[in-house]
Description:
7-stranded parallel β-sheet, Rossmann fold, alpha/beta
Amino acid sequence: MPVVEFHTGVTEPVAFAYRLLRKAYRMGAHVLVTAPQPRLVELDQALWTTDERDFLAHARMPGAVPAVASRSPIWLALQAGLLLQEGGPRVLVNLGADMAGGDALGLCERVIEIVALDVDEAHAGRQRWRDYKALGWEIKHHGNAERAVDSGS
């Protein structure tokens, strides 16, 4: 059974996600990132405007040219849905999007939920926690999330 890791109380979710993705990229992981549109645009821009030595190859999905998507270790999408399929990413990082359906989630090896301090986002994060529990997934909680990722960079 896959593990869900909740990082809660995150003050800057996009910056946190960037650091997490940089670490995953260096480890050779193939990651799907889901988020609401405004946050996805902000993350996409952050991935393009970093120092060229820290550039993280990524593609907006669906819609990326297949050759680009196949070479991109990081996919950005509004929803996981069909993107979690055979041959797709096995790590899902969620920045506040609705939870993927159980069938799609079953293809993940790892799910990372990044939950911001915002009251509405915290409430939605708690609901996703309950949904994962109902599916029988193991959940790990990381408080003070910024320090945890920074220490491993």
